[in-house]
Design brief:
Blueprint: E1 5-10, H1 14-23, E2 29-35, H2 39-49, E3 53-55, H3 58-62, E4 69-72, H4 76-88, E5 93-95, H5 103-116, E6 120-122, H6 130-140, E7 149-155, H7 175-191, E8 194-203, E9 209-218, E10 223-229, E11 238-242, E12 245-250, E13 258-263, E14 269-272, H8 281-292, H9 303-320
Parallel strand pairs: 1-2, 1-4, 2-3, 4-5, 5-6, 7-10
Antiparallel strand pairs: 7-11, 8-9, 9-10, 11-12, 12-13, 13-14
Helix pairs in contact: 4-5, 5-9, 7-9
Bound molecules: NADP nicotinamide-adenine-dinucleotide phosphate (NAP).
Length: about 325
């Protein structure tokens, strides 16, 4: 793979467009193809981003011999089937978060990727941002001592109609799956595997959670306290604390423009670590690194960890009684 990695984008919504913009900022990556359920939509996307191959079906993209990897940008309930289709066509895959609707679906596609020896990764882009990478390095170096807790939130006001994917159960609506995955994933990134989770939620008129608060106990010790909301504009911070002080990433943490380091007896330091472009280039670079290195998963977010986080979300949903059609 000495040539630029040729990407295909499956789906043409909001995040697909951001990803296409990000590809322009990665020198050894090229947007080769796009697919929509509707050919005219694919052609319009293709005109905007100068894409050589525009497909009117997802299967045609999966079968396209000119692409090296597929990025899946459909609503969550479609992820498992879309990933499966691409793996069966021998394509490596980067799939949007949440990876699937539940752990059962995740286990099935992970097993398929391993059986077919194909790369697969959850698009948890924030883990690859320079600010998060630096925070992790500092904490691994012991700057705050052994980390004891993570405090993280992610919330905005979702002023959307009842059929919008954010709140429509048939499209995987709900704050936990859409937003809660960020604080959950970050808590696991900094404090390790989760042994137990307790959640409380407020459900809205469409039957999905509009805000959820959850507490995690980590296997190696440590507690995390997390919140996700479609009802409030929350600070969007993640704070990792230990006996010697804390590291905080803010405004919002999933873009991680800078971090602050507050250590006992020292002045608070702020370190600017702006992401490249719109922030998504970093996950694209990671996929390229893995593909060129022959890795079948990223060590930064292993498939076992992705499945474990879905197990955790399944358990939390069971506590507040939220089931989706995919859970049947
Ligand atoms: N990483 C991030 O920062 C981030 C941000 C936003 C969203 N996301 C994730 O990305 C995924 C897509 O979110 P989005 O905001 O881009 O959604 P969106 O704007 O609604 O776009 C989703 C696209 O999926 C395709 N699709 C296939 N089946 C569909 C169906 N039954 N209903 C609606 N669309 C369908 C459509 O493309 P065609 O019509 O072309 O087939 C549509 O444009 C979600 O899983 C979400 O969690 C991630």
């Amino acid at each position: 793979m000495n040539q630029p990695i040729r990407w295909g984008i499956l789906g043409t919504g909001i995040i697909a467009r951001k990803f296409a913009e990000a590809l322009r900022d990665v020198p050894d990556a090229h947007l080769q193809a796009v697919a929509s359920r509707n050919l005219d939509t694919a052609l319009a996307f293709g005109r905007d981003f100068d894409v050589a191959s525009c497909h009117g079906s997802y299967q045609a993209l999966a079968d396209d011999p000119q692409i090296d990897v597929v990025y899946i940008a459909t609503p969550h309930p479609m992820h498992a089937a879309n990933v499966r289709m691409c793996l069966e066509a021998d394509k490596p895959v980067l799939c949007e978060k949440p990876f699937t609707m539940n752990a059962r679906e995740a286990r099935a596609v992970v097993a398929l990727a391993r059986e077919r020896k194909l790369f697969l990764m959850e698009a948890m882009w924030s883990r690859f941002l320079p600010g998060i990478v630096e925070a992790r390095r500092l904490i691994d170096d012991g700057i705050i001592g052994t980390p004891q807790n993570v405090l993280a939130d992610f919330g905005f006001v979702a002023n959307v109609a009842a059929d919008h994917r954010l709140v429509n159960s048939a499209l995987g609506g709900g704050a936990l799956l859409d937003l809660g995955i960020y604080p959950l994933s970050m808590a696991a990134h900094f404090l390790g595997p989760i042994a137990a989770a307790t959640a409380m939620a407020e459900l809205g008129a469409t039957g999905v959670d509009e805000q959820t608060a959850f507490t995690l106990r980590h296997s190696a010790g440590g507690l995390s306290s997390c919140l996700c909301s479609f009802r409030a504009t929350t600070p969007g911070q993640i704070t990792i604390s230990g006996p010697l002080g804390h590291v905080r990433i803010a405004r919002p943490f999933n873009r991680a423009e800078h971090l602050t380091i507050a250590l006992q007896g020292a002045d608070v330091r702020t370190v600017a670590l702006p992401p490249t472009g719109n922030g998504y280039p970093h996950e694209i670079i990671e996929v390229g690194r893995c593909l060129r290195g022959g890795l079948l998963e990223s060590p930064v977010i292993s498939l076992d960890q992705t499945v474990a986080l879905l197990d955790c979300m399944d358990a939390m949903r069971a506590q507040f009684g939220l089931r989706y059609p995919a859970d049947q």
